[in-house]
Amino acid sequence: MAHNKLPYLTQQDILNALTAREKLGSTGIGRGIAIPHGRMSGVQEPLALILVSETAINFDAIDNRPVDIFVALIVPDGDNKQHLKTLATIAEKLNDKEFCKQLRAAKSDNELYQVIVSQP
Question: Cystine design at 83: which of 38, 64, 66, 75 (Cβ 3.0–4.6 Å)?
């Protein structure tokens, strides 16, 4: 969990950052994928948390499809250039249908991790 990597932030702080961005508009990018993200002071480098839900969730995505792949991203506050670069990289990876198929097929955290690290 992100909280373990950022012990100086509370789980509520992380949730608040993600929720604040989501209030501006859904981060559901379509094809069952969402990239909720938030900026936080005190964070030194981007941190991503990937969750694949067994049951898709209505997330007000741009294509109105429910979402089952979530990539939650916490980035340093004020580093807009890095934030946009990180979002673009993640979106590019998630545009690969085979990669998304492998994410959805993963049966454990370890399998999910292996799918992610095996990507070029």
Answer: 75
